[in-house]
Specification:
423 residues, mainly alpha, two-stranded antiparallel sheet, 21 helices, 65% helix
Length: 423
């Protein structure tokens, strides 16, 4: 106990502060400091937004084309190339209000919406994961999330990844309690970006009623859009985008199976391939895709606990990224919840190998694209032949986290001791 001399010459006894209270106070102060730093970082990104590079202008063109012509793929007279909008029609319909505004105004509004959705995503993942460390150091987590390259790129480029993360994670979390709403979110994600339809495998193998309800919801959404805009936008999507547009699939930004093996064994403008063997590239893509789906099927069996389901969902999300023809690192935002679920497993088991594999996966996932641009020698060697294997470390991060999530999803985790939960 602390003692101090009193006015009468006696020693007065002062109450001591429990160590836990001191620790909680320091955590609160640290969270406040980190929150301020996170907000300053977001403001810096906002003030440095530029017309190029900016992916939002692609969405805006589609929305503006819907407003003016009723078709997000409208081909302007005299132009040889179709509208730059490359997604299915639904997202352009949803963004139509921004199509009435100038591009710069729409860009700033979309940035603000992305920031709000990011805050909602972080809060949702902290609460859903029930991670003690994430709850205690929420400010630190928020700072780490906003400065991570996938999130920074999403905010800087005006990508749709944060919205997609909320939709897809919401469908997983609501699958048991609100199957109709979960199915609607699943359908919405597939109609915005197509390849989230792969996640239907999770609902099928876990026997979730949300799957067939999602099919019904998807048909209803398509039916309403056909009544409002007719079939032309969907037919134009197939002819002008799916079958009539060149896309930089082999660029360094693409960390999917097709992008990785295509860079290796197909002639392209983004590197010198190891060999000209397109059949081998396709065979490797198919083999790795089947292996990823097999791991997902294996992970889909096991305990029906909350962290296991979140880890199982993370396994399917990693597979979805690998199977998609094009997947940028900004989509890694969706892995925040399963990563925190893996952290919760570490908290419950104290297994150092879980923490080590988790840390390795996060480091690789956060490896920025175009990281070789600063050094000509490094750029030349890693864009040539066998050097291509080292060009995209984040690609290996997807594989590593897929295996980690699957392993932990099949592991029976003991219940959290009350003493551990209190700390």
């Amino acid at each position: 106990m602390n003692e101090a001399p009193s006015a009468l010459g006696e020693r007065a006894v002062l109450p001591s502060i429990p160590p836990q209270a001191v620790s909680e106070q320091r955590a609160r102060q640290l969270n406040r400091v980190c929150l301020v730093l996170a907000l300053l970082w977001v403001a810096l990104v906002g003030f440095t937004l530029a017309p190029a590079p900016d992916d939002f202008q692609t969405y805006w063109r589609g929305a503006a084309s819907v407003v003016q012509h009723g078709d997000p793929y409208f081909l302007i007279q005299g132009r040889q190339q179709p509208n730059m909008y490359i997604y299915p029609p639904l997202f352009a319909y949803l963004l139509a209000p921004l199509g009435w505004l100038p591009l710069r105004t729409g860009q700033l509004i979309w940035f603000g919406l992305n920031v709000l959705m990011l805050a909602a995503l972080i809060a949702f993942c902290i609460r859903a994961s029930r991670s003690v460390l994430a709850r205690r150091y929420w400010g630190v987590l928020a700072l780490l999330v906003v400065v991570a390259p996938p999130v920074r790129l999403t905010l800087q480029l005006g990508q749709v990844s944060i919205l997609m993360a909320l939709i897809m994670l919401g469908s997983f979390e609501l699958a048991k309690r609100r199957p109709w709403l979960a199915g609607m979110l699943l359908a919405l994600s597939a109609l915005i970006k197509v390849f989230p339809a792969v996640l239907g495998g999770y609902f099928l193998l876990r026997r979730r009623a949300a799957l067939w309800r999602g099919v019904v919801a998807g048909l209803a959404i398509v039916g309403i859009s056909l009544l409002l805009h007719g079939p032309a936008p969907y037919s134009n999507y197939l002819t002008k985008v799916v079958f009539g547009r060149d896309y930089p699939y082999f660029g360094e930004h693409n960390v999917s199976l097709f992008g990785f093996w295509g860079r290796m064994f197909m002639p392209n403008e983004y590197g010198i391939a190891l060999a000209n063997a397109p059949l081998l590239a396709r065979a490797l893509v198919l083999g790795c895709a089947l292996a990823a789906l097999a791991v997902c099927a294996w992970a889909s069996r096991g305990p029906d606990t909350e962290p296991a389901e979140q880890l199982r969902a993370g396994t399917w999300l990693c597979a979805m990224m690998l199977l998609s023809p094009s997947n940028g690192t900004y989509t890694f935002v969706v892995l925040l919840l399963p990563l925190l679920a893996a952290l919760r497993v570490y908290e419950q088991t104290s297994q150092r190998r879980v923490l080590l594999w988790l840390a390795a996966g996060v480091v690789l996932l956060c490896w920025p694209p175009a990281w070789t641009d600063w050094q000509p020698w490094l750029y030349n060697h890693l864009h040539t032949g066998a050097g291509l294997f080292l060009l995209t470390p984040s690609f290996y991060g997807v594989f590593l986290t897929l295996g980690l999530f699957a392993w932990l999803a099949r592991t029976r985790i003991p219940a959290t001791p009350p003493s551990a939960a209190a700390h």
